[in-house]
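Q: What structure does this chain adopt?
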Amino acid sequence: MRAVVYHGTSDLRVETVPVPSIRASELLVRVGACGVCPTDIKKIHHGTVSPPRIFGHETAGTIVKTGALVRGFTAGQRVALHHHIPCLNCHACRHHAFAQCAGYKRTGITAGFEPAGGGFAEYVRVMEFVLPGVVPIPRKNELVEGAMLEPVNTVLKGVRQLTLLPGDFVLVAGQGPIGLMFAKILSLQKMNVIATDLMPERLRMARRFGARWAWRADDPNLNDHIHKATRKRGLDAAVIAVPSDAAVRQAQANLRGGGEILLFGHTKRGAVTELDLSLVCVDEKQLLGSYSADFLLQKPVAKMVFSRRLDVRPLMTHTFSLEQASDAISLAAHPRPESLKIVIGSVA
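A:
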């Protein structure tokens, strides 16, 4: 089969590799669509993991073979995959910190080599321990909608970290695919969403996704706009969906006492920033973090996406073949005004 093999920093090669062999308790899935995630880009561009690997974890496809011991799945069934599953029993899991579970950090889907998701290939092997995360895709829905379950899950998990009341004012900084999904889910929960970004095209999309106000992040009058929109109360919460320290400081300046800031885009380790921590201590402007998905949210996420209350289809702007994977990664890393979610696969 064809696969995009990572050989080191910014070195991707389309190669012929063996179709994965499955065990009696596993599935073999033909990949139809795999989203390009910023975590994949970071690993590829910065060489943070050892080669060779086959990346891609926002994956949907069609089951072509089931192991003899597998129950509940059949060949020909279209499914969305989930590459991490927590043990639900360890100390981290008992605290509902699933992303910190040692078992969760294992990757259970591979197209060969060290398991790394494998979605940038024609076929993937789905191991037994992640079968509870496999979600059937209804007939009326497209494969790309299944591929979006994992990123939507991460967003819903982040929203549920916040202690919000209907009618609260929430800033979403950054209107890429993740920020737009935050805007939509928050608006579905009756929040007054303020969206910021540097691209006018994305601000227009933010309004389509439920933002009540949408302003450029570099607008010199942004603080005044927020002050007026929130009726001088200030923001109840802010979601930072872009790795910008300036956005964090701006959110702190506009947050009411007792409000919350959710860091979602700051995934680069070792970065140091200066913050006035008295705002956290004295003004109780809380700093929260959210990373990866919550396995227990799979059902509500599937219901939201497949019912199209959150219609993810407008987010998918570009689809590339496996042979075009380097172009796909480049566009995802350097988005243009018209680009949002980048997908690799046949989408068949």
